[in-house]
């Protein structure tokens, strides 16, 4: 496109233009930008969920570690509370003092009031659970458990550290406690103890599985044997009774925190699945909103029969129904207004014709020059009313038509011929102006000849009404589009009015007043142009004329009417 016609491309950098029916291309009422922001918000929300999940995993890991300590402490504490409960109350302090040094564990008896335990802690102790708490102001952990069969006697064991001898001493102590019972009651006592703890324990006879010959020798010699299973990173403790039966405590595995990599991978997979689910749901909603947006654009563009297709069980069904109800009501109101306007306009024609006939009779009967001047003025006014009625009926026909109902007769037209015909018709009416046409040789367009000439004539007439000395019609086209630019050297259209002038009955203020008496518009000329352009799937824009300095109206039409939907 030649550089001297940059303003003929209406959607490149325009800031104030409209066809009065639908928003121009540079101001799309599209939901896509909103959905991009929504997707970004969802992405940021998923990232926030990811980090919240990682923090929750750390908290869960702390809970698992605390549970592991309580599970590990359940065995020693169950044994110690059973041993303490079996001692007479008068000798319990001495027993605790004797075994403190042997086990390397500080032991004491207390009650819940002295220990200032809370309600939940007391409930857990009442159920027989073990409480594990980090020692206040000291190194190590304190374990609490209620003595079996006693309501408020609590054994407190303070572990400052875990040595290799402590589990050995505890397993040896377990064997001693079981040996205090007769052999036929020993297993029942062992099962009663095992029901109170969370550690794996067992009792058997014969040769324990998994022990080497040297370990079996030590076991037969009465020692407590530690068996390390490297493959599973676990420990097992074995002790043998004098009768040949043996007990096993374990296998005990060390606490393993959840690897941060594993947590991250699991969280990433979960968030990916959640994100995909949200994405597909939002895509479905976006498609439906896009269809609603397209229907809304068609409705605001003049297709008052446009409705949203409703499908059973679809998202946004209520929104679609609400839109269709609103469209029905708007269409009914517009139809009533258009019917009223057409009826009133038709009814005006008969009395106007009578008045004109009466004026003609009076004019024939009177020879007075004064009366004839008055009658001429009245006749001019009647002519203006007649033109107004014609304009109203034309606009009503164009405004009330729907797709397929407007009787367009598109054909291949030479644009230059139409422009020359319009200028030839209007030049005698405006002798003080210079009207010229440039460009457009061998430029054709597929359109309705009658309506296209009406649109161009309205634009040129509008320019003539407001021009100072010149009106310039430029014609240009490419493979797809035809541009008809009408420029004048008048006052121009104020930027704030460029959206409004295509509305019916819109009139500018004194910035573009009529220059000639008896020549003026009714506020329907540009509205009719906008409707004609709409039905041809084109666009009308207004800007400042780059050369003449006044107003520049650019009428853009697709060259082929059958493919016009592509450019509208």
Automatic annotation (TrEMBL):
Question: What class does this enzyme belong to in the EC scheme?
Answer: transferase
User: What SUPFAM superfamilies does the record point to?
Assistant: ATPase domain of HSP90 chaperone/DNA topoisomerase II/histidine kinase, Homodimeric domain of signal transducing histidine kinase
**Residue segments, region Disordered:** 1-26
Location of the Histidine kinase domain:
343-561
Q: Which GO terms describe its cellular component?
A: plasma membrane
Q: How does it sit in the membrane?
A: Multi-pass membrane protein
Gene3D superfamilies this protein is in?
Answer: 1.10.287.130, 6.10.340.10, Histidine kinase-like ATPase, C-terminal domain
Q: What is its main location?
A: membrane
| Positions of transmembrane segments | 38-60, 258-282
Assigned EC number: 2.7.13.3
- Reactions accelerated catalytically: ATP + protein L-histidine = ADP + protein N-phospho-L-histidine
Question: Which GO molecular function, any one, fits this protein according to its record?
Answer: ATP binding
Residues annotated as signal peptide: none
Q: Where in the cell is it found?
A: Cell membrane
Question: Could you tell me which SMART domains the record lists for this protein?
Answer: HAMP (SM00304), HATPase_c (SM00387), HisKA (SM00388)
Keyword entries, A-Z: ATP-binding, Cell membrane, Kinase, Membrane, Nucleotide-binding, Phosphoprotein, Transferase, Transmembrane, Transmembrane helix
Residues annotated as domain HAMP: 283-335
The record's listing under PANTHER family reads: SENSOR PROTEIN CREC, SENSOR PROTEIN RSTB
Q: What is the official name of this protein in its record?
A: histidine kinase
């Amino acid at each position: 496109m030649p550089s001297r016609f940059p303003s003929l491309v209406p959607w490149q950098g325009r800031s104030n233009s409209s066809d009065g029916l639908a928003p121009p291309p540079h101001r799309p009422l599209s939901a896509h930008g909103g959905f991009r922001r929504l997707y970004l918000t969802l992405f940021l929300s998923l990232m926030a969920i990811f980090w919240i999940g990682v923090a929750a995993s750390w908290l869960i890991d702390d809970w698992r570690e605390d549970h592991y300590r309580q599970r590990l402490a359940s065995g020693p504490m169950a044994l110690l509370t059973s041993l303490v409960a079996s001692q007479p109350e008068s000798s319990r302090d001495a027993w605790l003092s004797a075994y403190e040094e042997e086990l390397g564990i500080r032991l004491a008896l207390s009650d819940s009031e002295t220990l200032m335990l809370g309600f939940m802690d007391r409930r857990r102790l009442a159920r027989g659970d073990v409480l594990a708490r980090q020692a206040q102001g000291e190194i190590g952990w304190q374990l609490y458990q209620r003595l079996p069969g006693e309501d408020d006697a609590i054994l407190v064991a303070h572990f400052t550290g875990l040595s290799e001898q402590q589990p050995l001493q505890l397993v040896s102590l377990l064997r001693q406690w079981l040996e205090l019972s007769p052999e036929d009651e020993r297993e029942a006592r062992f099962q009663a103890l095992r029901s109170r703890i969370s550690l794996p324990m067992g009792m058997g006879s014969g040769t324990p599985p998994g022990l080497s010959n040297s370990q079996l020798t030590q076991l037969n010699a009465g020692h407590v044997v530690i068996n390390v299973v490297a493959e599973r990173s676990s420990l097992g403790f074995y002790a043998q009774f004098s009768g040949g039966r043996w007990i096993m405590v374990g296998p005990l595995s060390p606490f393993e925190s959840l690897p941060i990599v594993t947590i991250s991978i699991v969280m990433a997979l979960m968030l990916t699945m959640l994100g995909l689910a949200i994405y597909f749901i939002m895509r479905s909603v976006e498609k439906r909103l896009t269809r609603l947006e397209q229907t809304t654009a068609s409705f605001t563009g003049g297709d008052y029969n446009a409705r949203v297709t409703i499908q059973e069980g679809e998202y946004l069904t209520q929104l679609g129904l609400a839109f269709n109800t609103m469209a029905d009501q708007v269409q009914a109101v517009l139809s009533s207004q258009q019917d009223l306007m057409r009826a009133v306009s038709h009814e005006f024609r008969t009395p106007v014709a009578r008045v004109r006939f009466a004026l003609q009779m009076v004019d024939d009967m009177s020879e007075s020059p004064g009366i004839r001047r008055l009658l001429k003025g009245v006749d001019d006014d009647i002519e203006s009313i007649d033109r107004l009625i014609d304009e109203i009926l034309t606009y009503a026909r164009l405004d009330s038509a729907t797709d397929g109902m407007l009787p367009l007769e598109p054909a291949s037209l030479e644009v230059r011929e139409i422009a020359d015909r319009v200028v030839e018709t209007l030049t005698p009416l405006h002798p003080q102006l210079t009207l010229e046409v440039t460009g457009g040789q061998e430029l054709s367009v597929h359109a309705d000849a009658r309506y296209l000439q009406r649109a161009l004539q309205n634009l040129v007439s509008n320019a003539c009404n407001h021009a100072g000395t010149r009106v310039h019609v430029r014609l240009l086209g490419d493979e797809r589009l035809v541009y008809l630019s009408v420029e004048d050297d008048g006052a121009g259209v104020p930027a704030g009015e460029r959206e409004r002038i295509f509305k019916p009955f819109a009139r500018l203020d004194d910035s573009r007043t009529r220059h000639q008496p008896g020549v003026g518009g009714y506020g329907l000329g540009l509205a009719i142009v906008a409707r004609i352009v709409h039905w041809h799937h084109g666009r009308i824009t207004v800007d400042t004329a780059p050369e003449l300095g006044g107003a520049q109206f650019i009428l853009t039409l697709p060259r082929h009417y059958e493919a016009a939907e592509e450019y509208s």
